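Subject: Sanity check before I submit

Could someone independently write out the structure tokens for this chain? I want to compare against mine line by line before I put it in a report. The sequence has 163 residues.
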Amino acid sequence: MAEDFQITDEMRAQIGKESEPWEYEVTTTSVRMYARGIGSEDPVHYDVDFAKSQGFRSIVAPLGYIGTPVYVPGKNDPTFGFPRREGGPRLNIPFRGLLDGGTETEYFDVICAGDVLVETSHLADLKLRESGRPMLFVTNEAVYTNKATGKVVAKQRLTSIHM
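---
Independent answer below. Compare away.
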């Protein structure tokens, strides 16, 4: 029963278990579409020549956009497109409710159109809290590496709240 839920040793053993890598593409079209979606009018997100005149390799991905996962039929979620990878943590969570607990992104380099990023993720933390009923906070960390340079360009911490 969800009311009696406890984090088990089996669940804690999943912490740190890394997923297989997945490629994310950063294209001119996706950068422009994301920039439009957030209401940016900065030409550095739209005009390749302008971006290059400012010292960038191509148009610059707006903050919050870290590419689009490469879609492989049968290996990605057909609705949301995120990869369903082998490996990585598997949790048997009995709760039906789910909330977005937030995303923190730390950047280490500029991401530009034409970049291919390789992402790996792992379960970073599990916390059980009570607020009238049990809530499980699941935190995953993702690391994005530029495939061409091998440099880590961003890290994200994503928290989901299951209740």
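---
OP: Matches mine. For the report I'm noting this point. The CA atoms of residues 134 and 163 lie 6 Å apart.
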